[in-house]
Design goal:
globular; four-stranded antiparallel beta sheet; six-stranded mixed beta sheet; Rossmann fold; alpha/beta; single chain; binds adenosine-5'-triphosphate; 9 helices
Length: 261
């Protein structure tokens, strides 16, 4: 795998006349923790769906976990990828038990819950629910949980197959301040865990970057504005270009914040 979990070269995605991604070069190495930051419509979800092997680019080459997309069988890759997004959540039935939401990703993030699971699978699902602070909901229907509770269950689900790459698309979207801070703290703990998979987290807000994240990719209009170690990428210039507004950026040693300058 050359130490590369993900490698994109010259990646472009076009739908009709619309360019969703343009000439994206991006490499994620083992152990790295990346945030993808950009405004609405920048192409963040499109980029993540390519990494999740759900979408093939119109141009360029993509390697995920050493496999070139378009060559091998992506179904063998899927159990090695954890993916939490609102689209994945939308595929889950509201009346599915929380424990089953997690266990159903044992063999890949598109599991339906109709597969057979073993006692060790359920033990792992319960351990993950415990680690994300939502074990008390294991018997509840997924649809009865609050947004914040659901987000944590979805991350537990994405970790169920013990993936080598974990993709989180806006895990803090729609959370209140307390729930967001709780989630950022838990994601920070995950980021600092050396046994955790490579992480890619998509967000609109620099305040949501958990401590321990190492790299950033800034995206605007389908193009990379900057990519690399966070301290090099998260400058006022880069973020102002990314969001199309003059911004002041601060880092307190752990967390980032930005406001109009
Ligand atoms: N099938 C399609 N045809 C045309 N345009 C599309 C298609 N799918 C997505 N787009 C457009 O591509 C752009 C990128 O979408 P994408 O969902 O990747 O952005 P995003 O950065 O994740 O945005 P958000 O932060 O709002 O979720 C958007 O402007 C979207 O409207």
């Amino acid at each position: 795998m050359n130490g590369h979990v993900l490698h994109m070269s010259g990646v472009g995605v076009r739908r009709g006349q619309t360019v969703l991604l343009d000439a994206v070069d991006w490499t994620v190495a083992e152990g790295e923790r990346w945030v993808v930051v950009g405004p609405n419509g920048a192409g963040k979800t499109t980029l993540l769906r390519i990494a999740a092997t759900q979408l093939h680019p119109t141009r360029g080459t993509v390697e995920v976990l050493g496999e070139r997309l378009g060559r091998g069988d992506v179904f063998e890759l899927r159990p090695m990828i954890g993916f939490a997004s609102s689209a994945v959540a939308a595929q889950l039935e509201d009346d599915m038990r929380v424990r089953d939401v997690v266990v159903s990703a044992a063999y890949g993030y598109l599991g339906t819950g109709k597969e057979e699971y073993s006692a060790p699978d359920y033990a792992r699902a319960r351990a993950l629910l415990g680690r994300w602070g939502v074990l008390r909901f294991e018997d509840r229907a997924f649809g009865t949980l609050s947004e914040g509770e659901r987000k944590r269950v979805l991350i537990a689900r994405a970790l169920m197959s013990n993936p080598e790459l974990l993709l989180l698309d806006e895990p803090a979207a729609g959370l209140d301040l307390g729930a967001r801070e709780d989630l950022v703290r838990r994601l920070g703990t995950l980021a600092k865990d050396e046994s955790a998979p490579a992480l890619v987290l998509v967000t609109h807000h620099v305040e949501e970057i958990p401590p321990g994240f190492t790299h950033g990719l800034l995206l605007r209009g389908g193009k990379v504005v900057a990519a690399g170690p966070l301290e090099q990428v998260m400058t006022a210039d880069h973020l102002s270009t990314t969001f199309g507004i003059g911004l002041k950026v601060e880092f307190d040693g752990e967390r980032w914040s930005a406001r109009a300058s």
